[in-house]
Amino acid sequence: MTEMSRPTDAPRPLATTVIGSWPVPEWLARLKTEWFRGRISHAQMQDVHETAIKAALRDQELAGIDIVSDGELRRDNDVDYLLSRMPGVEIAQTAKDFYFDYYEPRVTAPLGDADGPLGLADDYAFTAAQTDRPITVSLTGPFSLAHRIRDEAYGDRRALVLAVARRLNAEAAELAARGATRLQLDEPFLAGYPDQVGVAVEAINLVTADVDVSWGLHVCYGNRYARPSWEGHYDFLFPAVLEARVDHLVLEFARKGFDDLPALARYGWDRSVGVGVIDVKSPRVETPDLVAARIRHALRYVPAERLVLNPDCGLRHLSGAVARAKLAALVAGAAQVRESLVETSAPPPPEPSPTPSEPAPALAQGAAT
Ligand SMILES: [Zn+2]
């Protein structure tokens, strides 16, 4: 359906990135709940969020992550931040007591297509002012957002999913106009409804239509309180996902194992793949050797120029210390494999680097080869 395929928009082969969310420390969780209960002002909360985002960006930079995110630290969870800003979605503000709980939103009339921005472009502008690294902005996808809405307007799930998609398309266009170059749709609920992948892909194509950025699609098996919501196999995505107008498929493998990876080649997925090589549901920190072994395994099915490396999902439920250590292992494992690729592929061997174990610190260095 699409010839798009930007083989890699990543700064270098085996680039490292994150899925989106960053650990929410206890103090931030408390402050979010205080704000939700009206005990601290919006301006104070804004200041807290900005400070936390700066720290999360710095942690990612120090770990050597190539493509960073704001950690989704402004968002209570993967759904409410977007739905609560979407005109036409009704939410009883007293519906929850703890910030991480889900609202119980509903729609009682059809949604407008472009009722004003949701504010993600402002969030992006703040993040872009804090770092020189490429940034991915994630948006929870239309299938998953619609899944959390009680429909009293459409009487037809597909119609609601597509309406949410049109709204996200307007927001994506706003993000692109403000300079965002990498957007990612997260569909954490899709794996629970494998028979509805066709509707999800139809909606994804509405979101990405005419928004000229690098688009990722992250499908995982859920990460609510660090537990998977679903079990199953990624082959449910195929062949439908081949019709999705996205550039990257971003999947979890570290926890599930790599059994599903051959399906991508078997079904002819020739675009880039974000492969989860860090298990976010276990606090045990991987060694760089284990990460490197996982990368080498993935390289049997996806060539280095189409392979991006990431944790399985967001880091939200890990402690900051564990998340930092896991990202350091990710970067070190990627560097290990990148160096061995250089050794085996470059005809004249380069001068040995004085510090061969150091990952290249800067972005946009081009290929490490
Ligand atoms: Zn995920």
UniProtKB/TrEMBL annotation:
Keywords per UniProt: Metal-binding, Zinc
Annotated Cobalamin-independent methionine synthase MetE C-terminal/archaeal domain residues: 14-335
Annotated InterPro entries: Met_Synth_C/arc (IPR002629), UROD/MetE-like_sf (IPR038071)
Cofactor(s), names only, from the UniProt record: Zn(2+)
Compositionally biased intervals (Pro residues): 346-359
Region of interest (Disordered), ranges: 339-369
Coiled coil: none
Gene3D superfamilies hit by this protein: 3.20.20.210
PANTHER family assigned to the protein according to its UniProt record, in alphabetical order: 5-METHYLTETRAHYDROPTEROYLTRIGLUTAMATE--HOMOCYSTEINE METHYLTRANSFERASE
Name assigned to this protein: Methionine synthase
Organism (species): Pseudonocardia xishanensis
